[in-house]
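Module 6 notes. Inverse folding takes a fixed backbone as the condition and produces residue identities as the prediction. Think of it as a translation problem where the source language is geometry and the target language is the twenty amino acids. Below is one complete input and output pair. Work through it position by position during the lab.
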């Protein structure tokens, strides 16, 4: 699998640099047996640890919106992917009270965004072990290079919290192997004061209220990247219903209800329409979390249940729903491939608009292409965002979508939709790289598409039309 190749390559490159870096409290660490410090992503080099795979997270959390305090335990069921005498988890802020491995307290240290854990005795590659971290404090979101923030974000007053972690905010609320190369199943249980609702990914297994507190237990059965986890808290208006065999759960801040309801009513129709284009909806639950905030400025495709900073419009609903296939089910192995998420979700908007009386994708392509060479649209090639500040820039979205329209015009509708469906099917619950997408497109269409991708994904500045 691609991610394994990626991990292996980066492990080899970084191992030399990391031996013996555990803190003073840790046992001596033989060089080469500690996990890698970061999986080696060029844009977020510290994110994750290539030495372990987390199969499952069980998070048991308590949040107090007024005090803005989060306390809990994270239990990670992990497998060593190399011989290990220790490993690093990502955790930003918060206090760690205890770490155990298979029930035994172990030494740990904090260093920047890393929680460095020493294994009492080394384990060999392939060994399963369970890590439990007791922690708590006031979570603080991260400020990203583009000025936006991500992570656990308390909303003004005691409204609750908007919880979205792309690209690396998951570590602001739970210790994790925080790079998307590692995907895991999740149980997320959150206790909040009565009157609040905590909404997470997947299916709501149980909910009960006693002694002025409500506890919500959520379960996500499909593999999920840490950045797609949420546990957003608010005084929501909740609706639950079935769309065929799919349970839908929507939670809406009452202040956004008037604007949100008509759009959210379209969610089943959007899922059905996207299924006709992309293949079966990949998950066993759906829904939405709609917050009421004027500062966050974006929505995130949190798995099964996107979180919106305010009532979405149709384009945004279509966009975040398309991400369930492109981003959530098929996940990037490195952040520079972000156009595989954003370009595809944007192209879904183009197709929705065209199917509902808007401009045809060909015309949108032409309109965008008419923009002057100085426009932000041409500020970097979407196949190669140079830095974090540009990850979510216009080219990742719009020029990414233009690339897909160019591809569609080059290969024809039948091949194009075959490529989209095969992409979603072949990489379901896994990962995909730009190189793999290019190869699939060439295989399905039988065409040499190298010049097209070189022009649209990799050339700097405004591409010269072929
Ligand atoms: N993936 C989100 C979208 O649907 C954008 C996330 C932006 N994240 C951030 N920290 N600004 O387009
Ligand atoms: Zn998006």
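Target side of the pair, the amino acids:
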């Amino acid at each position: 699998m691609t991610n394994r190749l990626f991990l292996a390559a980066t492990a080899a490159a970084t191992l030399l640099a990391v031996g013996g870096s555990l803190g003073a409290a840790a046992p001596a660490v033989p060089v080469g047996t500690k996990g890698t410090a970061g999986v080696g992503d060029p844009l977020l080099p510290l994110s994750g640890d290539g030495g372990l795979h987390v199969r499952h997270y069980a998070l048991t959390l308590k949040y107090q919106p007024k005090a803005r305090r989060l306390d809990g335990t994270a239990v990670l069921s992990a497998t060593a992917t190399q011989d290990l005498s220790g490993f690093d988890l990502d955790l930003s802020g918060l206090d760690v009270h205890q770490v155990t491995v298979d029930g035994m307290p172990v030494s740990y240290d904090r260093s920047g965004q890393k929680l460095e854990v020493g294994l009492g005795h080394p384990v060999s590659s392939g060994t399963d072990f369970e890590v439990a971290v007791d922690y708590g404090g006031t979570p603080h979101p991260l400020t990203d290079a583009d000025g936006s923030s991500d992570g656990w974000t308390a909303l003004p007053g005691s409204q609750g919290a908007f919880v979205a972690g792309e690209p690396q905010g998951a570590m602001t609320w739970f210790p994790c192997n925080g790079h998307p190369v590692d995907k895991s199943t999740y149980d997320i249980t959150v206790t909040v004061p009565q009157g609040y609702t905590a909404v997470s990914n997947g299916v709501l297994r149980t909910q009960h209220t006693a002694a002025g507190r409500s506890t919500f237990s959520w379960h996500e059965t499909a593999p999920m990247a840490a950045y797609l986890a949420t546990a957003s808290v608010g005084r929501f208006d909740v609706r639950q219903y079935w769309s065929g065999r799919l349970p839908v759960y929507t939670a809406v801040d009452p202040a956004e209800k008037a604007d949100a309801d008509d759009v959210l009513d379209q969610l089943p129709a959007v899922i059905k329409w996207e299924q006709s284009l992309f293949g079966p909806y990949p998950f066993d639950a759906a829904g939405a979390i709609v917050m009421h905030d004027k500062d966050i400025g974006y929505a995130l495709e949190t798995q099964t249940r996107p979180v919106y900073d305010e009532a979405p419009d149709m384009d945004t609903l279509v966009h975040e729903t398309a991400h369930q296939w492109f981003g959530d089910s098929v996940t990037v192995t490195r952040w520079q491939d972000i156009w595989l998420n954003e370009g595809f979700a944007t192209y879904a908007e183009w197709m929705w608009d065209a199917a509902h009386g808007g401009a045809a994708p060909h015309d949108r392509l032409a309109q965008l292409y008419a923009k002057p060479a100085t426009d932000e649209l041409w500020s970097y090639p979407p196949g190669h965002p140079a830095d974090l500040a540009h990850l979510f820039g216009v080219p990742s979205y719009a020029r990414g979508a233009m690339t897909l329209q160019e591809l569609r015009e080059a290969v024809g509708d039948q091949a194009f939709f075959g490529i989209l469906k095969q992409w979603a099917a072949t990489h379901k619950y896994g990962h995909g790289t730009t190189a793999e997408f290019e190869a699939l497109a060439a295989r399905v269409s039988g065409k040499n598409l190298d010049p097209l991708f070189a022009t649209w994904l990799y050339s700097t500045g405004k591409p010269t039309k072929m």
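Reference fact for the lab report: The chain has two domains: 34-327, 332-458.
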